[in-house]
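Handout, section 3.2

Students often ask what a structure token actually looks like in practice. Rather than define it abstractly, here is a full record for Immediate early response 3-interacting protein 1. The first block is the sequence as you would receive it.
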Amino acid sequence: MFTLWSLVEASLLFLNAVCVLSEERFLSKYGWGISAQVQGFGEPASTKAQLLLLVRSIRTVTKIPLIFLNIVAIFFKLLLG
């Protein structure tokens, strides 16, 4: 059954996956590395560059809160099954 907890758990797993993703090891194989964001001044950013910036932003902003959210999710799983 699809509940609110399963939606929260799925978003938590997605955030964990984004934070664990390594640019040097995984993304650079497919051309999504650090050097993929080269653009001139005043030029609009490409979709690829915007997605890379989004991944970096998510990784920066959610690193510490994600630790506490994972601890809470583990306790809920242990207590409620």
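Discussion prompt for tutorial groups: Helices lie at 4-20, 47-61, 63-80. How would you have guessed this from the sequence alone?
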